[in-house]
Write a structure and sequence with these properties.
The protein is an alpha+beta fold and about 170 residues long. It has helices at about 10-20, 30-35, 85-90, and strands spanning about 5-10, 50, 55-60, 65, 70-75, 80-85, 95, 100-105, 115-120, 130, 135-145.
Length: about 170
């Protein structure tokens, strides 16, 4: 298979900034040092598991924003789509608040270093409490190619982070 992407950690300063904006009050340096890069669990896995950088618990209806500490460099013409891990979606109706996270290839160059922030909600019908432990996969990213429609050349470049593309 062709290698089209590379996962990296954002800088500690970027992680610290985003962690504080997400109300993370723990030992940010310790969390940052323990961040694992996403990887596939088995040879046949399509998804790269994003590991929780810290323990968290979500009651029914609760939402949390996770600063993953991860960014991805990928070839133009590809995107990274983020989804909840299947078991969590099935058991807890865990969902990403933007339903599917789309990480574009130019997001890597944004002002926030392309830091992937993951906002999830436990939408359990049965009042199930979801606990995720540090190092446990909770979201998966799938690299996908995309095509272009017949359009004019786009000259606008990304200079912002999340939601900067209008």
């Amino acid at each position: 298979m062709e290698k089209i992407a590379k996962f990296e950690k954002v800088s500690f300063l970027q992680y610290q900034k985003d962690a504080f904006s997400c109300s993370l009050n723990s030992d940010v340096l310790k969390i940052y040092e323990g961040i694992e890069l996403p990887r596939r669990a088995t040879k046949g896995s399509a998804g790269y598991d994003f590991k929780a950088p810290f323990d968290f618990t979500l009651q029914k209806g609760e939402t949390i924003t996770i600063p993953s500490g991860i960014r991805v460099s990928m070839k133009e013409g590809w995107l990274l789509a983020l989804f909840p891990r299947s078991g969590f979606g099935f058991k807890y109706r865990l969902r990403l608040n933007n339903t599917v996270g789309i990480i574009d290839s130019d997001y890597y160059f944004s002002d926030n270093e392309g830091h992937i922030l993951i906002r999830i909600t436990n939408e359990s019908i049965e009042n199930k409490v979801l606990t995720i432990h540090r190092g446990e996969g909770f979201v998966q990213g799938i690299l996908l190619p995309f095509g272009l429609a017949d359009e004019e050349e786009i000259k606008k470049e990304r200079n912002g982070g999340f939601g900067s593309t209008d």
